């Protein structure tokens, strides 16, 4: 070595800029897809497979598809005939809801959209009040609007509900109901009071141990056996209660996972400061625990949303059921592909939105640092 | 509130513990503890790990339940009644080994939370009090940060401020410097020394013997769940009477 290192550093080294690591498109391709013979081969085969598999679908669904028209005559037969969907669009959205009253559904949709947007966009003010309205005021208004029978609105029995509006009703009620019940069950399961704990455990294990289809069958067939016949329970209401309880059991276990991850020092610090049990849970433990399990909660929401399609087995016509019903229309035989692809797309859009929003909220709530 | 139901007499001890016994399952952690702490008294508790010193001070604000004996804090006798327990907790502040700040709240919010929810103060007033105490522990400039953005020493100072915001009569310190890097211990001890000078009643579990020598009125040595020896610091360090105390002191001071 030419010079030995100095025994004592007298001059401190200034921080320097990192070297330039931008590579451009070609640089990225070379580094990631074609970095060696094997890597290149794998890349080429994968791309070829993707093109080979996706191209026919794209041709069928987009390039050769028929978009315009109002009857079967508009379908050329080369690709998908989306006229099937547009011709039946009204019934896909509203089911059998009477045409004259559909503005009520539109109004509820619009309010729901505004509320969700308001709560989701960080800039808008008065979140607590809007949230309170969304949980207390909105359900009441939506109930009177959708069911009718008061204030001069025509009565629309729930057997006339259907399509996307039914799917959204079941999903929203399920989501809004199952989270708070799930949180209470999770807290109950960790309670030191044996009775509270026992009831919670039994409730959770019962609902988790039964398939949702069974729950729905029981709700529609067995419940009438137990309640006196004068009381007529709406079929939709029974399904809603079943779905809410079923998913709240799953939610409880997701939330419990979060509760267990919180250091017990957090609870002790709250106790030492004189906070009561509900204050500690509401202000310290749950905000942290729920944030930890956002992925699990949204995962449950997504499952719930998709499983609303099971209500078709008790004779409710949700989005999927109404599309299936359309397939048996003699004017439109043979359009099953279009129907199912469209149904899949609608479900996917809703579920993917939830997934993206949850990732966004996770980043936003991240205070960046543990303890 | 607590003042009304607990008349103050300066002659009356701040904390009175009589024949306290506690078991974890079959394990007898605290054995016949008798301890009386006067108002303004500063006590340092030391002893080997597992000797029950943390458990003892955690019994004082009922983070641990005891099975036998009596604890009276500021004239309020501890029972299983949650109202009683909360009445005692309002008089007692606590600082933990691992700080236990609330990571989802800013430093300022950490200090305001219990003022707002327990003392029912308006937010503005709570923030004013919080800033006063943050200023006293010299960390007011970090008020808007989250705990995770601070060093260990800074976090522990925030934790002290958070406890002081409730204007407690007694402060319990449970190994407040044990989780800190050596270079941060001093900044926390300085705050504690300052607090002791102002006349706060303090019970401090620590191995910082320098701190004990500087501020303690009394040093307590515990082993196997019992109080082995208690004495003013000069006597405790210079002429310990128990063999066990001598062994312990030689182990922690010996190098």
What would you note in describing this structure?
The complex is a heterodimer of chains A (371) and B (255). Chain A has 371 residues and is mainly α. Chain A is built from 15 helices and no strands. The longest helix of chain A is centred in the C-terminal third of the chain and has 30 residues, at 336-365. Chain B is an alpha/beta fold and 255 residues long. Chain B is 38% helix and 24% strand. In chain B, strands 6-7-8-3-9-10 form a six-stranded mixed sheet, with helices on both faces. In chain B, strands 2-1-4-5 form a four-stranded antiparallel sheet, covered by helices on one side. The longest helix of chain B is centred in the last third of the chain and has 16 residues, at 182-197. Chain B is globular. The chains are: A mainly alpha (371), B alpha/beta (255).
Briefly summarize what is shown.
The complex is a heterodimer of chains A (371) and B (255). By secondary structure, chain A is an all-alpha fold. Chain A has 15 helices and no strands.
């Amino acid at each position: 070595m030419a010079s030995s290192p100095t025994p004592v550093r007298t001059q401190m080294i200034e921080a320097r800029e990192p070297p330039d690591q931008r590579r451009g498109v070609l640089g990225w391709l070379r580094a990631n897809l074609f970095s060696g013979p094997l890597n290149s081969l794998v890349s080429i085969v994968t791309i070829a497979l993707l093109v080979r598999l996706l191209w026919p679908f794209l041709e069928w669904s987009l390039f050769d598809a028929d978009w315009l028209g109002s009857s079967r005559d508009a379908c050329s037969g080369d690709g998908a005939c989306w006229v099937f969907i547009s011709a039946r669009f009204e019934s896909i959205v509203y089911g059998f809801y009477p045409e004259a009253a559909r503005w009520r559904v539109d109004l509820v949709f619009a309010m729901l959209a505004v509320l969700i947007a308001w709560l989701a966009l960080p800039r808008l003010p008065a979140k607590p009040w809007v949230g309170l309205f969304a949980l207390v005021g909105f359900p009441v208004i939506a109930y009177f609007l959708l069911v009718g029978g008061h204030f001069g609105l025509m009565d629309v029995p729930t057997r006339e509900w259907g399509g996307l509006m039914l799917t959204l009703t079941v999903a929203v009620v399920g989501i809004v109901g199952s989270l708070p019940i799930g949180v209470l069950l999770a807290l109950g399961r960790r309670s030191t009071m044996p009775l509270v704990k026992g009831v919670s455990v039994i409730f959770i294990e019962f609902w988790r141990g039964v398939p949702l289809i069974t729950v729905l069958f029981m709700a529609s067939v067995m419940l009438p056996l137990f309640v006196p016949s004068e009381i007529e329970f709406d079929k939709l209401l029974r399904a809603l209660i079943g779905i809410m309880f079923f998913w709240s059991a799953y939610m409880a276990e997701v939330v419990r996972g979060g509760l267990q991850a919180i250091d017990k020092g957090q609870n002790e610090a709250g106790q030492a400061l004189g906070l009561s049990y509900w204050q500690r849970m509401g202000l310290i433990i749950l905000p942290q625990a729920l944030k930890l399990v956002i992925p699990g909660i949204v995962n449950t929401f997504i499952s719930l949303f998709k499983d609303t399609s099971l209500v078709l087995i008790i004779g409710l016509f949700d989005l999927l059921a109404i599309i299936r019903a359309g397939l048996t229309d003699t004017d439109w035989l043979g359009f099953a592909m279009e129907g199912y692809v469209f149904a899949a797309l609608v479900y996917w859009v809703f579920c993917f939105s939830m997934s993206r929003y949850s990732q966004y909220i996770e980043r936003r709530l991240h205070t960046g640092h543990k303890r | 509130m607590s003042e009304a139901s607990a008349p103050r007499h300066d002659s009356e001890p701040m904390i009175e513990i009589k024949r306290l016994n506690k078991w974890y399952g079959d394990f007898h952690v605290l054995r016949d503890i008798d301890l009386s702490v006067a108002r303004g008294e500063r006590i340092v508790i030391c002893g080997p790990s597992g000797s029950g010193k943390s458990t003892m001070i955690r019994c004082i604000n009922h983070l641990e339940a005891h099975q036998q004996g009596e604890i009276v804090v500021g004239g309020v006798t501890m029972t299983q009644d949650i109202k009683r327990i909360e009445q005692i907790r309002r008089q007692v502040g606590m600082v933990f080994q691992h700080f236990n700040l609330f990571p989802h709240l800013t430093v300022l919010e950490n200090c305001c939370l219990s003022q707002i929810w327990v003392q029912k103060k308006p937010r503005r007033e709570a923030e004013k009090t919080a800033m006063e105490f943050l200023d006293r522990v010299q960390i007011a400039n970090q008020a808007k940060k989250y705990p995770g953005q601070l060093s260990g020493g800074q976090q522990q100072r925030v934790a002290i401020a958070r406890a002081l915001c409730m204007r407690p009569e007694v402060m319990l310190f449970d190994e407040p410097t044990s989780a800190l890097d050596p270079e941060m211990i001093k900044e926390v001890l300085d705050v504690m020394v300052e607090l002791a000078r102002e006349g706060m009643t303090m019970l401090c579990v620590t191995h910082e013997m320098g701190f004990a020598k500087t501020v303690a009125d009394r040093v307590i040595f515990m082993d196997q769940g019992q109080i082995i020896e208690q004495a003013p610091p000069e006597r405790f360090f210079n002429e310990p009477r128990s063999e066990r105390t001598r062994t312990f002191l030689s182990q922690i001071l010996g190098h």
